[in-house]
Amino acid sequence: MDLTHRPRRLRQDRIRGLVSETSLEPADLIAPVFIDATATTRQPIESMPGHERVPIEKSVARVEEVLETGVEAVMLFGIPESKDATGTRAWADDGVIQEAIQRITAETDAYVITDVCLCEYTEHGHCGTLEPALRDGECETPDPSLTVDNDATLTSLRKTAISHAAAGADMVAPSSMTDGMVGAIRAGLDDEGFHDIPIMSYAAKYESAFYGPFRDAADGAPAFGNRRHYQMDPANSREALREVRLDADAGADVLMVKPALPYLDIVRDIRQEFDHPVAAYNVSGEYAMLHAAAEKGWLDLEEVALESLLSIKRAGADLILTYFAEDVASRLH
């Protein structure tokens, strides 16, 4: 028996860390924060244990909690005081996110990233302006084959991103999977003098069943139909490279894959194909299912959370947007 090669030699405690191929640090993580203009107190999110919707007045305190764990960046999601057909509160000067940005940037050192989408702001819950047949009432009942008017939505996304930058956001993150969104937003930001505001594009965002708890948290579920007409087919991988290349060519600074764990092959493909920083969104369903298993006593939550994030980093992600950010960062920190 030839045992010249013994990989176990390098698995001993005193050397294991020295030869570790992947490291995870608090600075790699981005913590989502939900700001609710309709709330007067912090409201627990039942489907996402440990997370809350917080009133605008509590937004600074919430972000300070994140910073105490060693996480340096937050992603803000807003629940507006009112909704309408086109989501006009998304770009209002006194909107929920705009007010939260001003408070957070004035009182903390957090790096503030904002989600740029319309689903939380439209009364129908879709990620943009509806197709003309739906807007004009030509369909007696909503036709699931007709959803978002792509080109009309670009104007709204552009205005929203500009309003976030004007309020003081450090980075904007368009997530609607609208064709041309990065180019429209980059042009809008540059026209208004925000040349240094980077764009983190949800460049490969799949139409996934793992988003369920988030739609509860952000009050953004579609009132009819689904989002399969603008989000990607989970069966496709080559299409992801095409989508990402379009956003990179249009000026995206960071390229995101969403969800993360079921799409680690996509994260790896993008890492190998592009020189841009790669982000991955460890989404609400990925978070909730580990919590559910842990509550049953089937898994050690702390260990599986760390292992999950480490696997995303190993696949090639530079940044991870995750609901485990604070818990894992506290352990690492």
UniProtKB/TrEMBL annotation:
EC top class, as a word: lyase
Gene Ontology MF, one: porphobilinogen synthase activity
InterPro entries xref list: ALAD, ALAD_AS, Aldolase_TIM
Ligand binding (Mg(2+)): E243
Binding site for Zn(2+): C117, C119, C127
SUPFAM superfamilies, per database record: Aldolase
Binding site for 5-aminolevulinate 1: R215, R227
Family annotation (Pfam families): ALAD
GO annotation, cellular component aspect: cytosol
Superkingdom of the source species: Archaea
GO annotation (BP), single: protoporphyrinogen IX biosynthetic process
Pathway(s) this gene product operates in, as recorded in its UniProt entry: Porphyrin-containing compound metabolism; protoporphyrin-IX biosynthesis; coproporphyrinogen-III from 5-aminolevulinate: step 1/4
Binding positions for 5-aminolevulinate 2 per the UniProt entry: S284, Y323
UniProt-listed Enzyme Commission number(s): 4.2.1.24
Reaction equation(s) it catalyzes: 2 5-aminolevulinate = porphobilinogen + 2 H2O + H(+)
PROSITE patterns: D_ALA_DEHYDRATASE (PS00169)
Keyword Metal-binding: yes
Active-site residue numbers: K205, K258
Keyword vocabulary terms for this entry: Heme biosynthesis, Lyase, Magnesium, Metal-binding, Porphyrin biosynthesis, Zinc
Keyword check for Metal-binding: yes
Family per record: Belongs to the ALAD family.
Subunit architecture: Homooctamer.
Protein name (database record): Delta-aminolevulinic acid dehydratase
Organism: Natrialba chahannaoensis JCM 10990
